[in-house]
Structure formats: C-alpha cells, structure tokens
TrEMBL record:
<keyword id="KW-1003">Cell membrane</keyword>
<feature type="domain" description="Cardiolipin synthase N-terminal">
    <location>
        <begin position="25"/>
        <end position="64"/>
    </location>
</feature>
<keyword id="KW-1133">Transmembrane helix</keyword>
<dbReference type="GO" id="GO:0005886">
    <property type="term" value="C:plasma membrane"/>
</dbReference>
<protein>
    <submittedName>
        <fullName>Cytochrome bd-type quinol oxidase subunit 1</fullName>
    </submittedName>
</protein>
<keyword id="KW-0472">Membrane</keyword>
<feature type="transmembrane region" description="Helical">
    <location>
        <begin position="12"/>
        <end position="32"/>
    </location>
</feature>
<dbReference type="Pfam" id="PF13396">
    <property type="entry name" value="PLDc_N"/>
</dbReference>
<dbReference type="InterPro" id="IPR027379">
    <property type="entry name" value="CLS_N"/>
</dbReference>
<feature type="transmembrane region" description="Helical">
    <location>
        <begin position="44"/>
        <end position="64"/>
    </location>
</feature>
<keyword id="KW-0812">Transmembrane</keyword>
Length: 77
C-alpha cells in the first residue's frame, strides 16, 4: 500500500486559503463601497446588514446593482 503524498493536501489547503481571502476581500470591497455611496444612512445600514448576513449574495447584489446604476447614469448623461 502506498503512502499518501503529504504535498497534495497542502495545495488543497492553500486553495481554500486563497478562496477565503478573495471572499473576505469581496465583502470588504462591498462594505467600503456601501459606506462611500450616496445612499441614505438607513439605506447604508440596511445594505451593510444584508452583506453581513448573506456575504456572497449580498456583496454580489450590491456590486452588480451599483455597476448597473452607474452604467445607467452614464447613458442618461
């Protein structure tokens, strides 16, 4: 019987760490974007709570919505 290669789990663990860092960066990016936005204070608080409660979905919803809003603003002039 062959022994398991100890390097393989290391790469898997490294991949999980990288994904975790990217996930955390996405949430931080969304939160910074929320607090720098022109939303009302209540709107900022609500969006921040959504991002903290549902980090992946909330961050994606905020960032995609913000992108579409900015794109519409440039089209409208």
């Amino acid at each position: 019987m062959e022994e398991a290669n100890p390097i393989v789990p290391g790469f898997f663990d490294l991949g999980l760490v990288v994904l975790g860092i990217l996930f955390l960066a996405l949430v931080i990016w969304a939160l910074v974007s929320i607090f720098r936005s022109t939303e009302s204070s209540a709107g900022k608080l609500l969006w921040a709570l959504v991002v903290l409660a549902l980090p992946l979905l909330g961050s994606a919803a905020w960032l995609i919505g913000r992108y579409l809003q900015r794109r519409q603003a440039t089209v409208d002039g």
